[in-house]
Structure formats: structure tokens, C-alpha cells
Amino acid sequence: xxxxxxxxxxxxxxxxxxxxxxxxxxxxxxxxxxxxxxxxxxxxxxxxxxxxxxxxxxxxxxxxxxxxxxxxxxxxxxxxxxxxxxxxxxxxxxxxxxxxxxxxxxxxxxxxxxxxxxxxxxxxxxxxxxxxxxxxxxxxxxxxxxxxxxxxxxxxxxxxxxxxxxxxxxxxxxxxxxxxxxxxxxxxxxxxxxxxxxxxxxxxxxxxxxxxxxxxxxxxxxxxxxxxxxxxxxxxxxxxxxxxxxxxxxxxxxxxxxxxxxxxxxxxxxxxxxx
Amino acid sequence: xxxxxxxxxxxxxxxxxxxxxxxxxxxxxxxxxxxxxxxxxxxxxxxxxxxxxxxxxxxxxxxxxxxxxxxxxxxxxxxxxxxxxxxxxxxxxxxxxxxxxxxxxxxxxxxxxxxxxxxxxxxxxxxxxxxxxxxxxxxxxxxxxxxxxxxxxxxxxxxxxxxxxxxxxxxxxxxxxxxxxxxxxxxxxxxxxxxxxxxxxxxxxxxxxxxxxxxxxxxxxxxxxxxxxxxxxxxxxxxxxxxxxxxxxxxxxxxxxxxxxxx
Amino acid sequence: xxxxxxxxxxxxxxxxxxxxxxxxxxxxxxxxxxxxxxxxxxxxxxxxxxxxxxxxxxxxxxxxxxxxxxxxxxxxxxxxxxxxxxxxxxxxxxxxxxxxxxxxxxxxxxxxxxxxxxxxxxxxxxxxxxxxxxxxxxxxxxxxxxxxxxxxxxxxxxxxxxxxxxxxxxxxxxxxxxxxxxxxxxxxxxxxxxxxxxxxxxxxxxxxxxxxxxxxxxxxxxxxxxxxxxxxxxxxxxxxxxxxxxxxxxxxxxxxxxxxxxxxxxxxxxxxx
Lengths: 275, 263, 273
Prior knowledge:
By secondary structure, chain A is α/β, with parallel strands linked by helices. Chain A is about 40% helix and about 25% strand. Helices cover about 75% and strands about 0% of the residues of chain C. Chain C contains 10 helices and no strands.
């Protein structure tokens, strides 16, 4: 399989030059049509890495390559064209759609920017793609449900037919049933349009459903990366082991308080040991 | 023994009469955890707001009665009802950042609550507050005491929230999606903490996550479109769901967890 | 409809109406009075208001007060409006630059803005006028140049926060031009706060202009303005109090109208200040 996106020894710091690294020396590969999940607790750096890949935050060291070309070492116009091949879906659909623009205008924007002459027809196609009624084009974001808004955000990202879709906790603000529908939609779209997905999530259940491979991040580093079932069912890293133990299965019965507290202690210990 | 909380025939509606919640009835005993599950819009959060008397403007309780430790809350004066929150009812919300006052330190909120509800002096309240932060296992309680909410991580804020909610040893603790924004390891810690802090109180846990509900609750209510459609012991309910909506919720949750642990 | 919404609407409409009336008076008023504001009539000095052909009376040189106050209105409105627009244009442009850029230019703008917050700009304006001299153009330029940080600060803060909003990030990832990004996503988002700032700034400029004229360094000699009318009235406070009352009421009503409008607009747009 051909490698689409490659992050090589990437470091990102919160404030430039202060040396506080959110992401330290992280390398990941994403192949065509593949879904790579990036999991870890909040503050572990997974969102920073995703944003660095998207070019929203600058990287301190390392390189991001798309189809083998270093995105920071291209002529300006080529960088723009290449960066457009990576699109993102955010966690909060309320914040990711301009509240003043109608759905039609939101979906037409990427098409206009890409030079499409007749965006109206494509807008209807895009809405159809994410299984929404084309009549929604005339609505404002606030008139849509959370799930509908997230579908619009996906449609906007797919409008420019990207090679990589970066989805940063796209299910976290949704109901279980809506989230399940969203997972089914993402899988179907990926089959049809064959883009690669970088799926950032703290929800291991969703990761199991979507991802081919999983990269686990802890304190700014990638600590484990392998096929989904291998990582989730037979983790080798001590943090990944904790994470797998912490998942609450609906049929698993009552929480064992002592086990939960033992896990808490181990977790705290991991945070205080030097890496 | 009489239940801590008793809700009977509860109805909630808009000012124009549109019903939002109808005929909800349940009771929670001391030391018991009752879960209310359902999707957003099912009325589970409104039910909690009605119990605390904090329904949003334009929405009101239209029927039924709410008894806390045998006392009909409708008989209380509005001021008496407001005083319930913090003293006899503690509340934990999904996002403590938006429910905490951003310009006040965690400590000042703890002290205010202790002084108002317990008529003690400020320095005693400070000691009590730091103790409470210790009880929720915040690593550096003194530092957390003087911190502003935005200076804490999500998990730490939720711990501080629990410390505040349980400070005055309320008879009833209401937790509305307390772990939705947190990752698995932190979620587990917070749930364990809720259970431990409960003591002799009753806990009403509102969640859309069946995994969370099953891990903590003694009994579950399933709500859909403002009505209770099914209730029972969690494992029994999940294995023998009668209502198609319950089955759908369960199947969606199990699908998310994949076939690996499917039963 | 709640009472506060109704009250804010009332204030907004009253402010608009008052400003409109004053603008019409400024445009046509001076020609309708039939008097030259500069015509000296030593025989008709200190005519009391409502007594003679001079509706608001005459001053110590027998000049018609109504004509003078209306001419002053034209001057004050002109100076305040142009100075506000200048400050708005400079402040908004620099604010947008400062919000985005991590460059030296952005840092300098932020430093200057922060410094201007704690600097007595009125004193600066007085010194600058002392150097370059007075006149309409000079006054507008100097007032605009010393007060733009007011707009810059708000624009910079709001734009910086908007630029981290996810819908703006999504727009950036489409690699659209900076012009499109700003006109489609950033400017519309800060327009509400900006438009509220304008009437309040306008009121400040009115007061500043009157104060400068009062000090004798605002308008050039021979131009009737409210500030120099007030200044001249001081000697006749007891014998002819209307000389002071007429320009004072004029200043107060214009500042009041601007504030009423600004406050109504603020509530209407839901902007907190």
C-alpha cells in the first residue's frame, strides 16, 4: 500500500521557543484508504499533532510529507495546493460552522475557492453524499441538530476531494445512536471516495469500529502503534494497558472500586515517572 | 426506610402548555444510585432541573410532586428552594468550566458554600475546603484551593466540582453527564470517586452512556420523549430489554464496543 | 417581548431620531435662520432669548446665538465624525494586522496600543496642535491619530479569538486568500462590537473637540464653535447666562443622542462591553 501522509519526528511546542513540548519526536504513517486512530488522554498532544499535520500550528522540528513531498519545503503555490489535500472535521459542530452563513454557502465556499463554476449543483450532491436533504441548504447552522451539523462539516471537508481527512473527536459531542450512524457514514464514504482518515479520539469503542491501526499517545510521545485489535486486546505499553482496562463495557457489570483505585494509582505513577 | 428522593407524576412543560416531560415517577433510597438514560431531548436533564427547582426560564413544572427526605418541595418558599442546592442537594455537571464562576478561585467557592450552609468561620471553612479537595484526591489540594477553574485540567476540575457538590454532605447528589468530556482512565477515577463520596447519600446519575450507567447504577430508568419507558436493574434491563427503544440504545452501545466483548 | 428589549429599542430609536434631527439642522440650519453667525450688531448686544427676532438671543457682540450654535453644530459634527472615521480606519486595519501576525509589526502595534491605554491622549493632542497649528484638517487628523488604539485594541482581541475558532480554521485549511478569509469570516464576526464602539467614540470626539475649542486651540479664530462660545460666555455668566446655556445644552444633547444610540445598539446586538 502506498503511503499518503507521513509525519517524521515531529515536535510541537505550546509557545514557540519556550521549550514546552506538546508533541515530542512523533512519527506516523498513513496509507491510502486506511484509517489510523490516534488515541490518548486529554493533554497528551494528540490534537496538537493533528493540527500540526493540518498546518494550523507550526512545527518546531521534523517534517510532514504528503505523497513524499515535504509540505514546508515547497514553493508557496504548491504548498497551498498540497495543503488543500488535507482537510479536517472538528469536535464541536457548533463552533466549526460559521453561524452567519447558510448551509448552502458553507458548502459552496470550498468549491468557490477551488474555482468551481457552478457550485449549486455540487452543493446538492454533497448534501446527498452525507445523507442530508438538499432543502437544508437554505437553513442556518443553528436550525440543524448536532448530528446534521457534523454531517455538514464532513461534507465541507470532502468538497475538495482530499487525500486525508483528519477528524478530531468528531463523535464526542454526539449521542450514542447518532455517533453510531456517523461511524457507518464515515466508513461508507471512505469506501466510495477512498481517502485516508486520521481519527483522533479518546473513545476506544469508536476506535475499534473505525480504525485499521491505532497509535497511542502519552505525554507527547507515541508509545504504541499497531493493528487495532492487537493494540486494544493485547497492549504492550503500560499506558495502553491501563487505557484498555479502563473501558466500561455495558454488560461488564458494576464498577469494582478497589480495581478502579488501583488503576488510578498506576496512572498517577505513570505521570510522575520520567520518560 | 423512607426514600431520600421521591418523584411522583412529574410533568414539565413550556409556558404555552407544550408538554416536555410527562408522568415521571421514581424513588431513590439512601446509598442507592439511580441512573436515567436516554438521548438528548428525552427529558432526563429537565427532570433533574425540576428536582432542584432550577428549570430554565419559560419552562415550568406542571404536575406531580417532588419529596426530599419526606418534605414536599412545593411547600418551600422560593428562597428555601434555592437554598437546597448546595446544602441538601449537590450537583455535578458535564462541563465544570462553564458551571464554575471563572473569576473566582476554587477555594473561594468552597468557603462560600461552607460558610453559607454551615454557619462556621472563614478559617474553619478553609480547612474544610482543603480537606474536601484532599478527599477527591487532588494531588496538591492547597494549590488547587487557590487555583482558578481554567488553571485545572478537565479531570481536576471535575474532582473540584465533586468536592464542592459533596462538601456539605448532601442527602442527594445529582450528576448530569459527569464524565462525558473525559477520557477512559479519568472517567473511571471520577466514577469511583462519585461512588465513594456518596456515603449515606443518594445519587441520581444522568447519562447517555450505557457503560457508565451499568458500572455505577443499582437501577436504571430509560426515558424517551419525556416519558419513562422502561426501568429495572441494569444487567437485567440490558439482557431482557422489552421496549424497542431500549433495545436500540443497547445495540448501538454494544456495536460501539465491537464484537470482541459482545455477550 | 421583555421590558428590557422594549427599552433598548426605544433608546435606539430615540437616539437615531435625535441624531437625524441634529444632522438635518447641521446641514440646513445655518442658512434657515436668516442671520449671519459672524454679523456684529453692537446696538443689539445681549438680547434675551425668545424676546426679539433672535430666537435664542444675541451675545456680547450682538451676534445671533441660534445661527452661531447651528454653525457650531456643523463644525462639531464634522470634526467628530471625520475623526471617528479616521480612528476607525486606522485602528481596524492595524488591529487586524496585530491579531494575525507574529511578526515584528504585530508586536509593535500591540505595544503601542497597550502604551496608549495608559497615556493621557488629550495632552498629546494639545501638544500636537500647538506644534502643527489648528484648522479642520489638522484637528481631525490629530484626534484620529491619537485615538485609533481604542479601535485597534477591540479589533485585535476579537479577531485573535475569531482566528482560533474552528470555522475560521476550517476556512484557512481550504487555503483561501487572506482577503476572502477576512471579508467572509473575520470582519463580519467583529462588526457587532465595532459598530457599537463608533457612537461612543463619536461622543468622546465631540467632547474632545469642544474642550480643545474651549482652550482656544480647536477651531481657528472667526469660526463659531460650541467650545469657544462657552469660553466667551464665562465673562457674562451672571448678566447673560443664556450665552453659556445655549452651547452647553447643545453639547449635552448631541453627546446624549450619541450615547443613547450607542447603548441601544449595544443591547440590540447583544454586545457586552
